[in-house]
Amino acid sequence: MATKYSRRTFLKATGAVTAGVAAVSAMPEKFLSWAEEAGQKEMKQIPTFCELCFWNCGLIAKVENKKVVKVDGNPLSLRGRGRLCGRGNAALGALYDTDRLKFPLINTGKRGEPVWKRATWDEAFSLIAKKMSTIKEKYGAGALAFIYHGTGSSFWKHLLHAYGVTTFAAPSFAQCRGPRDIGFVLTYGADVGSPEYYDFSKSKYIVLFGSHLGENAHNSQVQDIVKGFSSGAKMTVVDPRLSNIASKADHWLPIKPATDLALLLAWIRIIIEEGLYDKEYIAKYATGFDELRAAVQQYTPVWAEAETTISSDVIVEIAHEMAQCAPNVCIGAGRYTTWYGDDTQRSRAIAILNALLGSWGREGGYFFPTGAKVPEYPGLPAYPHPAAELPKLDEAYPFALLQTTTSIKQTTISEKPYPIKGWFVYGSNLMKTMPDKQETIKALKNLDLVVAIDTMPVDFINYADVVLPECTYMERYDEFAVGKFKGMSEISIRQPAIEPLFESKPSWWMTKELGTKLGLSDFFPWKDGEEYLSKRCEAGGIDFAELKREGVIIKKGGNPYITADAQPEFGTPSGKIELYSKQLAEKGLDPVPQYTRHPVAPPGYFRLLFGRAPLHTFSRTTNNFMLTDLQKENYLWINAKEGKKMGLKDGEYVMLLNQDGVTANGRIKIKLTQRLRNDAVYMNHGFGVHSLGMSLANGQGIADDDLITHHAIDPIMGGTAMRGNFVKIVKGA
After folding, report:
1. CATH architecture of the domain with residue range 606-730
2. Helices marked H in 57-110 — which ranges?
């Protein structure tokens, strides 16, 4: 099935909010006392960068009377190019959220049933330092772990490294992009970056697998794809759901969930067998072609049709279209890629298909980025070496190039190969990030110390012993954002537009103060966050005054494409693109991706799919009053014909029960639609918050994480596959 749709309103479909929101009119009442502060009428313009998603677009905060009244995109920013998405425009909703964490809290009750005591910073730090010392004396510093997401985490990594901690993990690896990164590293010896190195603006053909571009913002990437469209680029989107980007494609392939690898392998076979691959490119830069060819012979278009429900004629047609446009073709690697358990192999297949079309390092495919670096703070002591080398937590996953939250959680429960007794969690709502919530709670109850550092009272803090309120990104100096782009690199500064509100503090201050209590003052010689950044700029010959004034410094780089004078380097063992991976073979894993058939929904159930809302960054923004007014809850998408057969009505509330008999808390509205296959349902992630402290978000919609009780683990890198759950719709909510 292939369907064509107009692209004319694509930018509207991304959910962008009008720039220049009149913020004061949207403010809660307790902030309307601004008018009383007369005097200063001059509007200051302070450049910084956004933290409402990982894209970190440059923005300019406009300040009157020591209050931020408006934000605009910074036109110098390569990530945003003067534009902000709907979330970015709602920066004031995060800054002036009346529910935000205001002062340190100590839990005097049970984990999960907190009784909060307001504490001073000294009380909070003293308790943390005492518990850290006790854990270190009894088990060693290796019994502490840090789980993080966000820019300010760098200061906490520094503190904990200085204390001797060696266990660090970001959920973005095991729960999001890890399979993608490892699949490309195994093939090319390099990953695809963040922002990704897609040359969409020059592409003649683009293929996306389940990538909800626009709904997940990705500001400059959306702008690039629109440029590609305006130059005549064709697009195919493979997704069970007609996402906003799929509605702008030349072909929408509503694939049967869990069969994407079958389609990829069929395309690889067609490209090889019909001689459509870039023969010169493969001969010069790749190895393992003959082994690849032999391994994909069974994956014919007719076979793939039976697996995917996509017509074999359409499969062949699109393979030919890609080949005709090669090498100006980009088959996107995606971002959230932990789907079914064989995700690294699916990413490998995407990497291999790009290689066959000669798109790596070619215009319109994947470009070679220009790098940039800011030196570390000069003169710091070396981190201590552990007294004894600890066993590797991820031994079972041979290509877990970063530590995984998967293994940290399992080790915390089993205490093998060694005990983990303390977690520091920065900016990560683990109740919604990791699968199997009950397993996460079991791990938390086995800890002697849980510290949460956040701006909001998210679900996770109910399980913390101590909560440290970080000020928002509009109120602090922070780590630099360093971006690699096509022919350019970017260094961005985060600096405060106003002083921190309430008793909240920046992470540079928290870690310096706690470091002093732990006897680590030598690791924190800077007076404040500004000095920390300025000394690093000085060490790198970077004009700090210019950076503060402009918000970004751009440096030009070399040629982003392969030329006769600029030949590619591949960081693989062979020094070439590895179509057949000896690294995988040596570990007893498939050296060429092989298709695995996954379970289908039991009778009466639907596969549960989930993704982003255009106006929300998961649970990070569902309490933002500027965005909640526009979308306060999520909806359950279901195929209209299927829903009507079940007697469902558009807008009625239902409950959801999963395959393990777990019923999600709350209820969710039905959305009858023709934009979804009949064997799956779809909902936005991040809703159904379970936190009384988040007054706007608590209990709104259903949390898909309540229903993700089953997950498969990628044997290559330890990622947790979360799309193997099925739900039944229960009426009468």
Report:
1. Beta Barrel (2.40)
2. 86-89, 91-95
